[in-house]
Design a protein that fits this description.
This protein has helices spanning 3-30, 32-53, 64-75. By secondary structure, it is an all-alpha fold.
């Protein structure tokens, strides 16, 4: 497994644990709204882990315009 794949797997594990715990706790208090907030927290935890904690290992464009430009250059 490459370094990028390891980061993605670790981010998945961290975000699922954080999101599940937050969804459970918020769901008990706020019901379905709390569970939905847990899903948002899961997404935020994944992105935080990948793009903040491991920002030096991940070299991807963070802007849509730059990302499109890189994709188009690879196809040419």
């Amino acid at each position: 497994m490459t370094g990028r794949e390891q980061i993605v797997v670790k981010a998945f594990i961290v975000s699922v644990v954080v999101g599940s715990i937050s969804a459970f706790l918020l769901g008990r208090v706020y019901g379905i709204i709390g569970i939905s907030a847990g899903a948002v927290i899961t997404n935020a935890a994944w992105h935080f882990y990948v793009f903040v904690v491991h920002r030096h290992e991940v070299q991807v464009p963070l802007f849509v315009g730059t990302a499109i430009k890189h994709v188009l250059q690879r196809r040419i």
